[in-house]
């Protein structure tokens, strides 16, 4: 066999993976394709391909990096071992220590992700860089410059609260990807070659970070694969890929096959992936990819990079830009108007700052975060930990929940369902032999054995294991896929037609492997044994397929009697002992759905949240579970079928399907992204495995459970201490309550603040002086803001929490245009009343300011009762007691202040009772016209908040 001398000094160094020539020749050669175009065309083609698919989030196509990885793995899976050595530039002896060191320097440490995270000061800057924060910081600085320290201090406190909440959330989540380091904390047995003249193979243990492409690794039970590996030799090798698939079932791997493109990637028999582990057997493999070029790294490198924009945060920014624009115009006009009247620039600027401060929704960060914190406390009572407060708000907008089946919809342990003879009829003999096999085997007891014994005990069967004496057992292994026990009777048993000392071999295992050792079949009703025929084989396999299609797991059962009276050691060593057996029957198992799952999904559906199941398990089992819990299964699809679809078909299929089976982590991610980007849905994802981490990170709301993998919990926003979907229903209700109360404040603030500022502008232009002094405006603003603190404790109407709630900037603008003019109209009515009834002039500024102060404060305090409900306030719907108490307290303070010493300090004067009579009429008219406008708005737009 010819092998290149890759360690000679004269040999050219060709990068093992990044070499375009090697990779291109390997892939196209194995796919039967020939290059006919020149290099320039190839360059242009690759450039266009990068533009179209490299960074685009369409959910349906793989990126250039993924395509490159898939081509590389499939090409090596189809290659003979000699060719694999050549392309990875290694030898049968392995790499020399010098060459391994050179490659380690060239490719870098073998870690699946670059654990580089933003520094804390970067996160602090990001948290601080928010339009409202910038506005408040700017105004606070100006306030201090103009000696308005109280106003500046208040704004700084509000900024500090907002920034602290945001910084804490960002800093906590930035460390989540560090959990990938769990995959690189074990020594790896590597074969290297040493010697200057005569090279010999030596086996050494190196840290996984030091493994390089071209290394030959030796793996045994419990070992993790240090990279993507092409098997060279294998012996009964069984691998757990749960870190990639989420399913507990193991898969057999072998070096002695050549795969083709039709095999799904994770089903390739001769390729083992980084992060997967050896369950049993052993093997030798050639490392073909390490570090950032592995399949694990490719899929997890997407974490945190493709999360859709937060509609709420985006909407807040748009509002801030609008308010800034209005502020610049209005404040400029007011400052100039006051300056031309008073010719006092400092006084004019101070008043302008007060107006700008009043226009800014200063309490928004506090109201939002208080509402979210309140929601988190409420969910904590339902045994639910909220890691990211914003996830509560997103749960209120969530309209699709994607669920990983295993352990979420199901109880995650199998129970025995039935037992059949070879004709499909229940037969107690089958259960009897199954029970004896499960009872007496003890070397490798599996959950299915416990399920058989539990079924027998709970259904009152008394099989009397004391009548039997165990001679020995042949334990389960993944080659035979069966377990056998040899029993001997202690006493005569007529019903079993056996005498003292008779021996029997009872074997249980995978049906296919049981049938392969059976030569006879027992017709129990006749008590006779016949030769095993092709018709028997067809009938039994059809019964098994029927049970499998219904979502059951099936085991076969066989027996052999009598056994020769020889020594135990001779019997066990006889390779033919498990042969010419009698087929007894089948036993079926099922992982049942949780009792609470169906009710919870029905309640979620009532609230407009549709469920989709995304699982790595088989389609038949997924369909069975979904039927049990009430999820429609008219449109289902598997991961391999999804992989073959073009982009448009992919999105259409994702939109239509409710059950997705045999999905890889990348496919789960693409399904979630497709629902978000193409379907414009707010998506929640509930999963508990490492394989769910991508989808958990990309979803709007990532939900895991306390018993889930540590990485899944790190990427989740919400952790359930109990696997009960009813907690999600409570979370959805809490999210919509929080969202609704937040929207109350936002809509009320925009309407009240804009109306108030426009009224101030009109009054300033008419009178030529400030309608309120900066101190009066600041006091009014403080009292108004204190009154809004109770909003997070308000209640929402039942109709509101029945449907998902989404932020709509267009809806907010329309809402403001419909309802905003009424506030300004009320202020103008007050202005006209003061001019016409009290004959107020520009010289009666104390009386005018007192009247304007009280009316403005009452207007801004009472408006919440009109905005908060679709119904008639105080008559059909009353706010929660904290809101009512807040309204009464703030209104009382506002009315009383002009009559107190504090009022004198502020420059206010006592008001006549006739003015309060006018205010009663004014507010009755305001609420009456407001209700008419509200009904018209609801009639046109079919919604209110």
UniProtKB/TrEMBL annotation:
A Pfam family that the UniProt record links to this protein: Cation_ATPase
Record InterPro entries: ATPase_P-typ_cation-transptr_C, ATPase_P-typ_cation-transptr_N, ATPase_P-typ_cyto_dom_N, ATPase_P-typ_P_site, ATPase_P-typ_TM_dom_sf, ATPase_P-typ_transduc_dom_A_sf, ATPase_P-type_domA, HAD-like_sf
Entry's Gene Ontology cellular component terms: plasma membrane
GO molecular-function term, one example from the UniProt record: metal ion binding
Gene3D superfamilies according to UniProt: Calcium-transporting ATPase, cytoplasmic domain N, Calcium-transporting ATPase, cytoplasmic transduction domain A, Calcium-transporting ATPase, transmembrane domain, HAD superfamily/HAD-like
Bilayer-crossing regions: 123-143, 149-168, 321-342, 348-373, 750-769, 817-838, 879-901, 913-933
Function: Mediates magnesium influx to the cytosol.
Protein name in the entry: Magnesium-transporting ATPase, P-type 1
Organism: Nicotiana tabacum (Common tobacco)
């Amino acid at each position: 066999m010819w092998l290149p001398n890759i360690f000679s000094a004269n040999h050219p160094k060709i990068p093992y993976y990044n070499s375009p020539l090697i990779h291109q020749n390997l892939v196209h050669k194995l796919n039967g394709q020939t290059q006919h175009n020149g290099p320039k065309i190839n360059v242009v083609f690759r450039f266009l391909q990068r533009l179209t698919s490299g960074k685009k989030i369409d959910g349906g196509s793989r990126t250039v990096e993924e395509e490159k990885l898939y081509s590389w793995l499939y090409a090596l899976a189809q290659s003979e071992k000699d060719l694999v050595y050549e392309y990875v530039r290694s030898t049968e002896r392995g790499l020399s220590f010098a060459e391994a060191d050179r490659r380690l320097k060239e490719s870098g440490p073998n870690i699946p992700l670059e654990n580089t995270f933003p520094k804390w000061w970067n996160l602090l800057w990001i948290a601080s860089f928010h339009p409202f924060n910038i506005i408040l910081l700017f105004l606070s600085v100006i306030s201090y410059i103009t000696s308005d320290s109280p106003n500046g201090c208040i704004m700084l406190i509000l900024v500090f609260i907002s920034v602290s909440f945001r910084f804490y959330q960002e800093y906590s989540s930035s460390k989540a990807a560090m959990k990938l380091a769990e995959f690189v904390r074990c020594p790896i047995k590597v074969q290297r070659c040493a010697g200057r003249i005569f090279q010999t193979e030596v086996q050494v243990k190196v840290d996984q970070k030091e493994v390089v492409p071209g290394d030959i690794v030796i793996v045994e039970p419990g070992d993790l694969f240090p990279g993507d590996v092409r098997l060279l030799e294998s012996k009964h090798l069984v691998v757990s890929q749960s870190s990639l698939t989420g399913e507990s079932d193991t898969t057999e791997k072998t070096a002695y096959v050549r795969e083709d493109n039709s095999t799904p990637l994770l089903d390739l028999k001769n390729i083992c992936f980084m992060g997967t582990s050896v369950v049993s057997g052993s093997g030798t493999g050639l490392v073909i990819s390490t570090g950032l070029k592995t399949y694990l790294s490719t899929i997890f490198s997407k974490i945190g990079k493709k999360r859709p924009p937060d509609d709420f945060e985006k909407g807040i920014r748009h509002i801030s830009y609008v308010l800034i624009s209005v502020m610049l115009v209005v404040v400029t006009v007011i400052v100039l108007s006051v300056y031309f009247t008073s010719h006092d620039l400092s006084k004019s600027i101070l008043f302008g700052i007060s107006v700008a401060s009043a226009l800014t929704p200063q309490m928004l960060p506090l109201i939002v975060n208080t509402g979210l914190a309140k929601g988190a406390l409420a969910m904590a009572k339902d045994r639910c930990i909220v890691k990211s407060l914003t996830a509560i708000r997103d749960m209120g907008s969530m309209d699709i929940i994607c669920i990983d089946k295993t352990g979420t919809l199901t109880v995650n342990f199998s129970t025995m369902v039935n037992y059949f003879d070879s004709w499909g009829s229940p037969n107690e003999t089958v259960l009897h032999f199954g029970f004896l096999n499960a009872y007496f085997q003890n070397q490798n007891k599996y959950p299915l054995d416990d399920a058989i014994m539990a079924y027998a005990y709970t259904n009152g069967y008394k099989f009397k294991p004391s009548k039997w004496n165990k001679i020995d057992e042949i334990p389960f292994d993944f080659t035979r896929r069966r377990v056998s026990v040899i029993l001997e009777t202690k006493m005569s048993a007529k019903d079993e037609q056996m005498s003292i000392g008779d021996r029997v071999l009872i074997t249980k295992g995978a049906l296919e492997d049981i049938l392969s050792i059976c030569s006879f079949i027992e017709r129990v009703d006749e008590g006779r044994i016949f030769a095993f025929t092709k018709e028997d084989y067809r009938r039994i396999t059809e019964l098994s397929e029927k049970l499998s299609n219904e979502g059951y797991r099936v085991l076969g059962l066989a027996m052999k009697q009598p056994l020769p009276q020889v020594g135990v050691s001779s019997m066990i060593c006889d390779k033919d002992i498990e042969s010419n057996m009698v087929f007894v029957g089948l036993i079926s198992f099922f992982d049942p759905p949780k009792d609470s799952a169906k009710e919870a999904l029905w309640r979620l559906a009532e609230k407009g949240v549709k469920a989709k199941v995304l699982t790595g398990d088989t389609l038949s089992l997924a369909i069975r579970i979904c039927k049990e819990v009430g999820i429609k299964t008219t449109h289902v699809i598997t991961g391999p079928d999804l992989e073959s679809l073009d982009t448009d078909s992919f999105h259409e299929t994702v939109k239509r399907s409710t059950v997705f089976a045999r999905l890889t982590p990348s496919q789960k991610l693409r399904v979630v992204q497709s629902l978000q980007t193409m379907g414009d849905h707010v998506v929640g994802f509930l999963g508990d495995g490492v394989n769910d981490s991508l989808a958990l990170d990309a979803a709007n709301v990532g939900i895991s459970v306390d018993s889930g993998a540590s990485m899944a919990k790190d990427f989740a926003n919400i952790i359930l201490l109990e696997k009960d979907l009813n907690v999600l229903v409570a979370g959805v209700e809490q999210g919509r309550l929080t969202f609704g109360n937040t929207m109350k404040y936002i809509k009320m603030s925009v309407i009240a603040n804009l109306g108030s500022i426009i009224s101030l502008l009109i009054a300033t232009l008419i009178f030529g002086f400030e309608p309120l002094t900066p101190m009066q405006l600041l006091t009014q603003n403080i009292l108004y803001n204190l009154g809004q603190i109770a909003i997070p404790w308000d209640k929402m109407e039942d109709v509101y929490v029945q449907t998902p709630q989404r932020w709509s900037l267009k809806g907010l603008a329309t809402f403001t245009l419909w309802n905003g003019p009424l506030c300004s109209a009320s202020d103008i009515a007050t202005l006209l009343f003061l001019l016409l009834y009290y004959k107020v002039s520009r010289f009666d500024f104390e009386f005018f300011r007192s009247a304007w102060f009280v009316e403005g404060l009452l207007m801004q305090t009472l408006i919440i009762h009109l905005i908060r409900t679709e119904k008639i306030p105080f008559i059909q719907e009353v706010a929660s007691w904290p809101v009512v108490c807040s309204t009464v307290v703030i209104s009382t303070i506002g009315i009383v202040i002009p009559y107190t010493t504090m009022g004198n300090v502020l420059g206010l004067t006592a008001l006549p009772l006739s003015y309060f009579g006018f205010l009663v009429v004014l507010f009755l008219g305001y609420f009456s016209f407001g209700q008419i406008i509200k009904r018209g708005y609801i009639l046109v737009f079919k919604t209110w908040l």
